[in-house]
Amino acid sequence: MIDLRFSDGELERQRDHITAFIRERVDAAGADGAVLGLSGGIDSTLTGYLAVEALGAENVHGLVLPATVSSEGNMSDAELVAQDLEISYDVIEIEPIVDVILSTYPEAEGDREAVGNARARVRAVLNYLVANHESRLVVGTGNRSEAAVGYFTKYGDGAVDCHPIGNLYKGQVRQLARHVGVPEELAAKTATAELWADQTDEGELGISYETLDDILATHIDGPLSVAATCRLLEVDEETVERVRGMYERSEHKRNAPPAPVPLE
Ligand SMILES: Nc1ncnc2c1ncn2[C@@H]1O[C@H](COP(=O)(O)OP(=O)(O)OC[C@H]2O[C@@H]([n+]3cccc(C(=O)O)c3)[C@H](O)[C@@H]2O)[C@@H](O)[C@H]1O
Ligand SMILES: Nc1ncnc2c1ncn2[C@@H]1O[C@H](COP(=O)(O)OP(=O)(O)OP(=O)(O)O)[C@@H](O)[C@H]1O
Ligand SMILES: [Mg+2]
């Protein structure tokens, strides 16, 4: 294991850097603030806290978007975050929308992944409905760990205007959350996409965030070879190669869609 934790000084610098980034993005776009989806999870909770610090509560709009597979605990935590932050928010049930979509293409019914991703994309439609109507930017909540292995829905939760915490590994997200005052019950929560019942990030990815963050920092974002990473972290080659595979296969999600080069 390596120590990716920030010092207190670094935590304050990250906080200033990210809040300045949010302000700059909103100002540069001439927008009237931000909208973000609140899931009760740590990524959106931290991003909400930082957006309020950056823009003021009156300039942040939260959307709590329960599906039938959402846990009541997470949805009530999401509302509590909005209330604690004193931001305006709406609660919109998305399952009727998902049902209409499936009624037009019943072949996909029961396809857990396709329906789960459709839930994430319905949320994106609602985020942009509010962003268009209120001249806001959609603030993303993705972190570096998820982005690096493609653990997000393309044009779903990945459909955003900026990624304020996009350079932080998951462990660092938890650390910064505690630093800015997110309650411990939220900072310590198990990460879940809640696209289907009983889903957890670590269960689906087949690796703990602790190990994933270490491999990303050392090998994918860092300079060490597979062999050196295995020696340093005391993990097996198969695990490092698996992370490398997820990183390579998800490259298309991190880039703009390609077009053929222009003919000469
Ligand atoms: N090489 C390639 N070049 C260009 N495009 C490529 C491609 N390979 C697939 N594609 C396209 O990408 C699609 C697959 O990508 P996508 O639709 O995203 O689907 P996919 O990556 O299969 O699934 C999304 C994953 O992210 C997880 N997730 C989603 C949302 C939130 C969270 C969370 O942590 O909260 C996690 C979810 O549990 C699942 O494991 C394909 O159907 C195809 O259209
Ligand atoms: N029920 C929901 N209502 C509103 N937004 C949601 C909902 N579920 C997911 N989202 C949006 O999708 C994002 C991606 O989900 P993800 O699970 O990666 O983050 P999180 O829930 O904030 O944190 P964690 O990964 O620790 O669960 C959320 O941060 C949030 O913006
Ligand atoms: Mg979540």
UniProtKB/TrEMBL annotation:
Record carries keyword Transcription: no
Positions that bind Mg(2+): 43, 146
Ligand binding (ATP): 37-44, 141, 170, 192
Family matches, as CDD domains: NAD_synthase
GO biological process: NAD+ biosynthetic process
Recorded superkingdom: Archaea
An annotated Gene Ontology molecular function: metal ion binding
Domain NAD/GMP synthase: 17-257
InterPro entries, sorted: NAD/GMP_synthase, NAD_synthase, NH(3)-dep_NAD(+)_synth, Rossmann-like_a/b/a_fold
Keywords: ATP-binding, Ligase, Magnesium, Metal-binding, NAD, Nucleotide-binding
SUPFAM superfamilies for this protein: Adenine nucleotide alpha hydrolases-like
Residues annotated as binding deamido-NAD(+): 121, 154, 161, 252-253
Class of this enzyme: ligase
Pfam families: NAD_synthase (PF02540)
E.C. designation(s): 6.3.1.5
Family classification: Belongs to the NAD synthetase family.
Subunit and partners: Homodimer.
Classification via PANTHER family: GLUTAMINE-DEPENDENT NAD(+) SYNTHETASE, NH 3 /GLUTAMINE-DEPENDENT NAD + SYNTHETASE
HAMAP family for the chain: NadE_ammonia_dep (MF_00193)
Function: Catalyzes the ATP-dependent amidation of deamido-NAD to form NAD. Uses ammonia as a nitrogen source.
Protein known as: NH(3)-dependent NAD(+) synthetase
Species for this entry: Natrinema soli
